[in-house]
Every structure is written in structure tokens, then in C-alpha cells.
């Protein structure tokens, strides 16, 4: 009985390992400093793989200016064609199927000279088809459904990372706003103090001049 249990456990681990290898090709997140144009390359092994991810601009003090054009994002296929693009944004999500296998380039373009830090998350998922599953006798069509569930769970993880990055950016914005308010308040108080001192000096000189004129 114990031997059978161990055999079933080993078989289950093998199945899970196979699914993890089939369904998730690449998952990574990184921070990119964009001064002009920065690109990240990723190899997609199969046509039709699901490419998804998100990005959030973290350092965006220049967005205080409402006329700032934002960050441009584009994805190019191995043939050099643009398969996905976003213009003038501070962050967004994306998802599409790879039209072909090969190396895809994910590029960020900052139109201004001020550097921006971008939190970037990318996931390349693969759901095996019946032909792939037929190559192994231990699997059947239910494993395709398991792979689809795995992809659904991965999209939830991606959404959590996106919301976490946006929350970090909002905290950064709040902290930056607080520091700006404190700075402008201090500057205002200094101007008021300097203005009061100048008024006092002016009034004292005015009275001194009046007293000297009356004496004459």
C-alpha cells in the first residue's frame, strides 16, 4: 500500500512538473531606467504562445506637467513588425498571441530627457495541444484544461503585480506631493518673514527721516 502511494505521488509530481514546463515558458519582472529608448528581448518558442504583461512608470515627477507626452511602448515580432503598441501612457497591461516563434523586442521610448524608471512584468505562456499531449502516454485532454487554469492563475498573479506597482507609484506620488507642499510652505514663510523685516526696516527709516526733518 505504501509502495503504491509513493508511486502515485511520484507520478503526480512528474505530471505537475511536465505541466509547469509546458505551460510556463518564461516569467520575469525587472526595473528599467528609460532615458531615450530601452528594449528587452524575449525568445518565444512556439507560434500562438500567449504573451502578456504590464508596466508602470514609477519615477514620474515630470507628469506634474499635464502636457507631458508620456511613455511609448511597442512590441516587435522577429520579422520586425509591430504587433502591439501604446502611446503616451504612464502604465498599462497587454496580452496577445505570438504570430510566430522567435525573438520579440519590448521597447520603451521616453520623448523627454528626464530619466524614468519603469517596473516591467512579462509572461510567456504555452498551452499544449492534443499533438503534444499524445506524445506522452501519461497525459490526456484534461491536461489541456489544467494548463488553461494555470494560465488563468498566472493572469491573476500578473494583475496583482500590476496593482502593487500602481500602489507603489501612488505612494511615491503622495510622498512627493507632501515634500513639495512642505518645501513651498517653508519658502512662503521665508518670503513672508523677509517681507516683514523689510517693512519694519523701511518704516523705521521713514520715521527716522521724519524726525530728522522736524529737527531741522
Topology:
Blueprint: H1 2-23, E1 24-34, E2 37-44, E3 50-57, E4 71-76, E5 82-89, E6 91-97, E7 102-109, E8 116-125, H2 130-134, H3 142-215
Antiparallel strand pairs: 1-8, 2-7, 3-6, 3-8, 4-5, 4-7
Order of helical and strand elements: HEEEEEEEEHH
The largest sheet has its strands arranged as 1-8-3-6
Based on the structure, what is the oligomeric state of the protein chains? single chain
Strand content is 25-35%
Tell me the number of strands.
8
Specify the overall morphology: elongated
Strand count, sense and closure of the main sheet? 4 strands, antiparallel
Structural class: alpha+beta
Percent of residues in helices:
40-55%
Low-confidence segments, ≥5 residues, pLDDT <50?
1-24
The gyration radius over C-alpha positions equals: 30 Å
Q: Taking all residues together, what is the mean pLDDT?
A: 75
How far from one another are the termini? 122 Å
Annotation field: number of helices: 3
Essential attributes:
216 residues, single chain, 47% helix, alpha+beta
Explain this structure:
- The protein is 47% helix and 31% strand.
- It is of the alpha+beta class and 216 residues long.
- A hairpin with a 5-residue loop joins strand 4 (71-76) and strand 5.
- Helix 1 (2-23) packs across helix 3 (142-215).
- The termini are far apart.
Amino acid at each position: 500500500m505504501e509502495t503504491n502511494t509513493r508511486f502515485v505521488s511520484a507520478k503526480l509530481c512528474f505530471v505537475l512538473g511536465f505541466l509547469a514546463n509546458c505551460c510556463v515558458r518564461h516569467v520575469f519582472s525587472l526595473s528599467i531606467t528609460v532615458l531615450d529608448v530601452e528594449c528587452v528581448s524575449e525568445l518565444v518558442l512556439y507560434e500562438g504562445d500567449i504573451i502578456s504583461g504590464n508596466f508602470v512608470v514609477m519615477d514620474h515627477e515630470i507628469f506634474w506637467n499635464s502636457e507631458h507626452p508620456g511613455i511609448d511602448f511597442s512590441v516587435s515580432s522577429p520579422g520586425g513588425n509591430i504587433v502591439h503598441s501604446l502611446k503616451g501612457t504612464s502604465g498599462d497591461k497587454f496580452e496577445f498571441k505570438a504570430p510566430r516563434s522567435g525573438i520579440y523586442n519590448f521597447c520603451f521610448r521616453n520623448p523627454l530627457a528626464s530619466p524614468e524608471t519603469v517596473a516591467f512584468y512579462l509572461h510567456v505562456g504555452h498551452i499544449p495541444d492534443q499533438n503534444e499531449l499524445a506524445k506522452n502516454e501519461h497525459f490526456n485532454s484534461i491536461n489541456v484544461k489544467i494548463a488553461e487554469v494555470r494560465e488563468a492563475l498566472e493572469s491573476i498573479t500578473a494583475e496583482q503585480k500590476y496593482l502593487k506597482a500602481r500602489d507603489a507609484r501612488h505612494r511615491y506620488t503622495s510622498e512627493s506631493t507632501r515634500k513639495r507642499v512642505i518645501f513651498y510652505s517653508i519658502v512662503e514663510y521665508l518670503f513672508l518673514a523677509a517681507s516683514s523685516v523689510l517693512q519694519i526696516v523701511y518704516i523705521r527709516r521713514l520715521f527716522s527721516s521724519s524726525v530728522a526733518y522736524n529737527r531741522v
